[in-house]
């Protein structure tokens, strides 16, 4: 991790704020990529949000004065549970009714396209000044949902389903429809940030995944986000009440070849966007 660049973007977003500012950290996790000491020195009131209940003890250890309303365990999308239940019901029903695999796949695809994420969790906090860190959560939002959907489709409900290729991958049109639902979750997250009316927003996210092999100059590069790359991400804010004031990117050599995988190494391209609320809004 490029700690200097990461901390630089956090310090830059907190510039000019004071003890009355509420710092909300979305995807706070174990606070590994958060400059805890800097935040403590600034005396900001913090609010942590993460779906994983196991990280609460870490928050408490690092911020002993954190009260319950400042430590929120929740799914920010507020739809993954509902989507999972609906998918479960849908597959149960359709596996009883359909013998033909092609029809089942087509129905599943249209079911997935019918899913809409709704508003998600409201991040507004009244008149108080607020700064939000969206802390490496954007690219993670779809992972939990995709894994759950994959399990429901392939294992729990329809074992050896014809919805899956022999490699274990979902059929391409099902994968595409699932990717569409993930894009909706990403856009919902950016909508949550825009609707928060926070003074400053820092978005830290993986943007590209690069894979390399030693002695081979051809890298494979995949997008980390379903909504597109860096320019698509910035475009979402063009017509909003936020102005992009700083953007930086850096490479994070997350898994050098030969450690987790003998065949290839991976590098994440990370971006940090600092957005300020426009005066008129
Ligand atoms: C890559 S980790 C971020 C690491 C963290 N910032 C740290 O410093 O340790 C992404 C975090 O987002 C959280 N997350 C993923 N989906 C979420 C959701 N729908 N709602 C709330 N938190 C979510 C995960 O539980 C995880 O802690």
Concise overview:
The protein is of the alpha/beta class and 281 residues long. Helices cover 38% and strands 23% of the residues. Strands 1, 2, 3, 4, 5, 6, 7 and 8 form an 8-stranded mixed β-sheet that branches.
Structural notes for this entry:
The chain is α/β, with parallel strands linked by helices and 281 residues long. The chain has one domain (3-260, 269-277): 3-Layer(aba) Sandwich (Rossmann fold), CATH 3.40.50.150. 38% of the residues lie in helices and 23% in strands. The protein is built from 8 helices and 8 strands. It has helices at 3-14, 36-42, 56-62, 80-97, 101-114, 141-156, 172-195, 230-238, and strands at 22-26, 45-50, 71-73, 130-135, 200-212, 220-223, 242-255, 265-277. Strands 1, 2, 3, 4, 5, 6, 7 and 8 form an 8-stranded mixed β-sheet that branches. Helix 3 (56-62) links the parallel strand 2 (45-50) and strand 3 (71-73). Helix 4 (80-97) runs antiparallel to helix 5 (101-114), helix 5 packs parallel to helix 7 (172-195) and helix 6 (141-156) packs antiparallel against helix 7 (172-195). It is globular. The site of S-adenosylmethionine has 20 residues, from helix 6.
Provide the fold topology.
Layout: H1 3-14, E1 22-26, H2 36-42, E2 45-50, H3 56-62, E3 71-73, H4 80-97, H5 101-114, E4 130-135, H6 141-156, H7 172-195, E5 200-212, E6 220-223, H8 230-238, E7 242-255, E8 265-277
Parallel strand pairs: 1-2, 1-4, 2-3, 4-5
Antiparallel strand pairs: 5-6, 5-8, 7-8
Helix pairs in contact: 4-5, 4-6, 5-7, 6-7
The structure holds S-adenosylmethionine.
Residues 27-34, 50-52, 75-77, 135-137, 140-141, 144 line the site of S-adenosylmethionine.
